[in-house]
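Morning. Coffee machine broken again, so started the prediction first thing and wrote up yesterday's gels while waiting. Chain of 226 residues, entered below exactly as on the submission form.
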Amino acid sequence: MTSTAVQGIGVHVRAVTPTAARAQADFRALLNVLSRPGVLDVVGRTDGPAALAVAAGLADVEVPTAVLAAPGAEHWARVLHLATSAPPAAPAEARMVVALRPPTAEEIAALPRGDALHPERGTRLIVAVTGLSSQEAGERNVPGPQVPGPQVPGAEGPGVVLVLSGPGVPGTRRLRVTGLAREVFAALAAANAGFPAGVDTFLVAADGTVAGLPRSTRIEIENGEH
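Came back before lunch.
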């Protein structure tokens, strides 16, 4: 690797590595959305992919991690491993999977789920999406004035509307997600059908908006794109 390439990787590593204060704030946001499925919160924006910055705050040397990246963006996997010392792993063996491109239903189905005796062996999934919006009034927990995020083509499209129920949800909540096909959510619902085994999921939009879908949440698909 040339010195120029090393410097380039270093710039990317710094871009996705949060400060201690930012990491603490982001962790609180992630706990909030995982305990209140369908509620939106926000994590700090960086110069790198927002989903990768979320992963950088959760990964460490004890968390084998896989990164699913589009062709030409494979360098982000190396960036995450350098930033966190998380060992690289194949998705079927990873404790955390970061999808910077839309995962397929087959990839979701192949993720480790753990079992009734060892639910902690289930994968934590972090997925980049185009956009997120709550269908319920007052369900966005974003304190203070916010700097508008980047304009993402397709973020206001029809997307997939999920009807969520279960622990942390009073009745039901509706969450609209753009950038993922309904088949992905059908596969996720199937993966979590054997609770407590399953996959805990964070959806992260480019502007830092984040939503949580823990394995205990029941997902029904109201509409969506194939």
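The beta strands are 41-42, 65-68, 96-99, 124-129, 131-134, 160-165, 173-178, 200-205, 209-213, 218-221. Going to sketch it on the whiteboard this afternoon.
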